Amino acid sequence: MSSEESDHVYKKIELTGTSSKSIEDAINSAIAKASETVRNMRWFEVVEVRGNIDGQAVQHWQVTLKVGFRLDG
Amino acid sequence: MSSEESDHVYKKIELTGTSSKSIEDAINSAIAKASETVRNMRWFEVVEVRGNIDGQAVQHWQVTLKVGFRLDG
Amino acid sequence: MSSEESDHVYKKIELTGTSSKSIEDAINSAIAKASETVRNMRWFEVVEVRGNIDGQAVQHWQVTLKVGFRLDG
Amino acid sequence: MSSEESDHVYKKIELTGTSSKSIEDAINSAIAKASETVRNMRWFEVVEVRGNIDGQAVQHWQVTLKVGFRLDG
Amino acid sequence: MSSEESDHVYKKIELTGTSSKSIEDAINSAIAKASETVRNMRWFEVVEVRGNIDGQAVQHWQVTLKVGFRLDG
Amino acid sequence: MSSEESDHVYKKIELTGTSSKSIEDAINSAIAKASETVRNMRWFEVVEVRGNIDGQAVQHWQVTLKVGFRLDG
Amino acid sequence: MSSEESDHVYKKIELTGTSSKSIEDAINSAIAKASETVRNMRWFEVVEVRGNIDGQAVQHWQVTLKVGFRLDG
Amino acid sequence: MSSEESDHVYKKIELTGTSSKSIEDAINSAIAKASETVRNMRWFEVVEVRGNIDGQAVQHWQVTLKVGFRLDG
Amino acid sequence: MSSEESDHVYKKIELTGTSSKSIEDAINSAIAKASETVRNMRWFEVVEVRGNIDGQAVQHWQVTLKVGFRLDG
Amino acid sequence: MSSEESDHVYKKIELTGTSSKSIEDAINSAIAKASETVRNMRWFEVVEVRGNIDGQAVQHWQVTLKVGFRLDG
Amino acid sequence: MSSEESDHVYKKIELTGTSSKSIEDAINSAIAKASETVRNMRWFEVVEVRGNIDGQAVQHWQVTLKVGFRLDG
Amino acid sequence: MSSEESDHVYKKIELTGTSSKSIEDAINSAIAKASETVRNMRWFEVVEVRGNIDGQAVQHWQVTLKVGFRLDG
After folding, report:
1. In Å, how far are B43, F52, J42 from D72, measured between CA atoms?
2. How many residue pairs from chains A and G have C-beta atoms closer than 8 A?
3. Is G53 on the interface with J (CB under 8 A)?
4. Of B1-15, C30-44, I3-17, which one has max mean pLDDT?
5. What pLDDT does B7 receive?
6. Is residue I60 within 8 Å of I12, Cβ to Cβ?
7. Is I36 exposed, middle or buried (0-12, 13-18, 19+ CB in 10 A)?
């Protein structure tokens, strides 16, 4: 959080994004989806990295993250 | 998560279910209550098991769990 | 949770309150803000205490807490 | 803890109960035994679930819990 | 471990058992399966309790445990 | 522990103090209560900070701490 | 785990994969190597990310993961 | 960290501040002392709260925190 | 715990033993002291290893352990 | 650490690197910056992955790592 | 891991060694036993130190460790 | 920390000491090395015990510890 935001209250939600490409892409996928309904997202924290396996390679990356956003008003 | 669900984004919420019967019943109680307003619940993870005591026996089991559900669309 | 509330289901949300005064004030700030939209809040648990620094003193206390509230009905 | 008890001080002790039947039974076994010497027990928190194995099945469930009780006076 | 076994070396493996009935049943399921190939299993420790959800109830309990067994000879 | 105390053995007990005023006051409340029966208390470690909520503010701070004291003789 | 697999028992093994390219590549390296001897691998969980340094850059990424696979039959 | 600082590299050091007054004062004591030799301190995270006991009250609060500061240039 | 003891209930206490010689000696010091007042001690678990420093060497090893003992009768 | 280095003593420092590109790039950014003043860096361990969000995407990756280096002589 | 080994994949197994003498001896006991069937062991990490008590002294040290070894070829 | 030192501020650094002899020796090795440049060291806390393996025995013990020292003046 930057200094100018510090008088506010924030809420954190926990999301799991998935991607067949990379860890970063799974995180961006979760944030993009959340942005459809959540405003003022400020930061995220990775909680867990896992995935499923198809034969002998990673099929989907599944990254759980907490996203903090400022409560309006 | 099964493979066919992996292109989606999931949200996890944290609930505490209670029951006078068993740990399993407290978990099912929380999931049944959540199903009244949350669709597409897929999995849960137990976070904490505790309870209150009446005299010399467990009175209520209180089980905190995280429940993951698919965000629509 | 008191005994008479034990047949209910509770949800926990995670908030970060901020204050330039104290840790306690940051917690009360988060609870006061949440009370505008959340009913039946019962307890909280402190998850993290941090803050930002302005020169050589704490500028804002940032306290992350989980707040449990009874689901209606 | 319910509200009316909040002016008190509580002590927590750590117990391991055992049972050949179930996790819940091992917890109740520990609480029943403790109630012989400890008054005013209010809540418990499960710390660990383990057990020993006899051949190919669980022989005894061993559940470690913390039990909180109000200090008298 | 009992005293008379203490001169041995033990190995721990991590298993996930599943059951539609209960947590205890999922644990026994994992131990029974492991007993087909592993001898001298002595104790287990529960690592994680989770499960999948079908509509508004638990469909399968998935319990991850570590199982300790004595290395032969 | 200071150097001159280092040849002794210490025991740690776990307490939960409560206060309507502050975190520090809840800790001092627990220590004052324990001092009625425990001698030679030397240090404490905070384990958990939580509390209950009355409407839109903290009603009681509940702080769990471990207290170390020297075993006599 | 998908629903249809839930009647099975799974084993988890812990591997460390290495790569000079990326975290993802180190994970795939471990899974590809394990697939030479392990069948029915289903999912993985990242446990640790570390690496060694050559001068002023990462030389090798070393990622420790747990891999879950279904026990046959 | 605010957005405009994000291209920098930060170092975190671990300090223990002490105070006979309060947790907040112990933290400010550590930051004030560190500011004599460290520039560009930005944030802190509380790691541990403990203290020593004199008779039946807290004598000194001892708070361990990590302090992050921007590396120059 | 050995099998024949599994029908009992156990209590765990937390002790800190000190020694100028070794980690093992600090543990034995705590157990010997506890044996003056506690019967039926069965096992211990090391919780923390620390110590104080005199100039450039360890002066005293301070080892915190939990000790489990069977509750009588 | 390789075998030939094992007679030495190592120090670990904690850094946060940032990057708008990837997790790996943030880590290399921290190591490159540290190499300006620290010699003999040998390994790193990732402690935390987080970042800030600009609208609906990750703006900067912020990766905290510990870096171990051999103390000279 | 030394640099020259970094292109390989490693597996970690979890063992518990026992000894009536010391913590170090329990670790060496586990490694010696594992070396009868496992090649290319490279490093270990201590996970837990515990033991059983005979009267008023430690009877056996029980140390759980993870051992990493290079997968062949 | 002893009582008379409590008005000071302390810094903690993280070191890894190595030894072919014992865990205690690895810790003393780290402290002796640090004492060449750090004054007023007061206490240490063990963070991790690991080591490398040569064939079928421990070759070097590698113990990571935090060392606390008083900041001058």
Report:
1. 43, 21, 57
2. 37
3. yes
4. C30-44
5. 73
6. no
7. exposed
Contact I34 F1 (CB under 8 A): no
Which stretches of E6-71 are assigned E, i.e. beta strand? 10-19, 41-54, 57-70
Q: What is the pTM of this model?
A: 0.94
Residues of chain H with C-beta less than 8 angstroms from the C-beta of C58: 24, 27-28, 31, 44
DSSP conformation class of K73: -
Give first-to-last CA distance, chain A, whole Å: 17
Neighbour count for residue K72 (Cβ, 10 Å): 9
- DSSP-assigned letter for residue I28: H
Tell me: the pLDDT tens digits for I18-34? 999 999 999 999 999 99
Q: How far is CA A55 from CA A52, G45, J56, K8, K10, in A?
A: 10, 16, 34, 20, 20
Q: How far apart (Å, rounded) are the C-alpha atoms in residues L66 and K56?
A: 32
Q: Is the pLDDT of residue K26 over 70?
A: yes
Phi, psi values for residue C4, rounded to 5°: -70, -15
What is the tens place of the pLDDT at every residue in E4-49?
445 799 999 999 999 999 999 999 999 999 999 999 999 999 999 9
The dihedral over CA atoms of L32, L33, L34, L36, expressed in degrees to the nearest 10, equals 90
pLDDT of residue H70: 97
- Return the DSSP state at J3: G
Share of chain G above pLDDT 70, in %: 90
Any J CB within 8 A of G44 CB:
no
d(CA K28, CA L60): 12
β-partners of residue G58 are G53
**Cα–Cα distance, B70 to A37 (Å, whole number):** 14
Q: What is the DSSP letter of H8?
A: S
Full DSSP string of C46-62: EEEEEEEEETTEEEEEE
Select from H19, H36, H44, H65 the residue whose CB has the most chain C CBs within 10 Å, as the one to mutate to test that interface: H44
Cβ–Cβ < 8 Å for J11, L13: yes
* Residue J62: exposure state from Cβ atoms within 10 A (0-12, 13-18, ≥19): buried
- Phi and psi angles of residue H43, each rounded to the nearest 5 degrees, phi first: -155, 165
d(CA F57, CA H50): 26
Residues 6+ apart with CB under 8 A from L37: none
Q: Given an 8 Å threshold on Cβ–Cβ distance, is F14 in contact with D12?
A: yes
Q: What is the pLDDT of residues A18-67, one digit of tens each?
A: 999 999 999 999 999 999 999 999 999 999 999 999 989 999 999 999 99
Q: Has residue L1 got a pLDDT over 80?
A: no
Short-list D16, D67, D11, D8, CA closest to D43: D67
Residue K18 · residue K27 · CB < 8 Å? no
Q: Which helix (H) or strand (E) holds D28?
A: helix D23-34
Count of C-beta atoms within a 10 Å radius of residue I66: 17
How far is Cα L61 from Cα H54, in angstroms, rounded to an integer?
A: 39
Q: How far is CA G44 from CA E37, F18, G8, in A?
A: 23, 43, 17
Asked whether the predicted pLDDT for residue K20 surpasses 50, the reply is: yes
Which tens digits make up the pLDDT trace of B10-55?
999 999 999 999 999 999 999 999 999 999 999 999 999 999 999 8
DSSP K5: G
Task: Identify the residue whose tokens are 């390219």.
Answer: G21
Q: What is the DSSP letter of B20?
A: S
Q: By the CB < 8 Å criterion, does I42 face chain F? A: no
Beta strands C10-19 and B10-19 are antiparallel
One-letter amino acid for residue H38 of the chain: V
Three-state DSSP at B28 gives helix
How many I-K residue pairs are in contact by the CB < 8 A criterion? 37
Backbone Cα Rg of chain K: 14
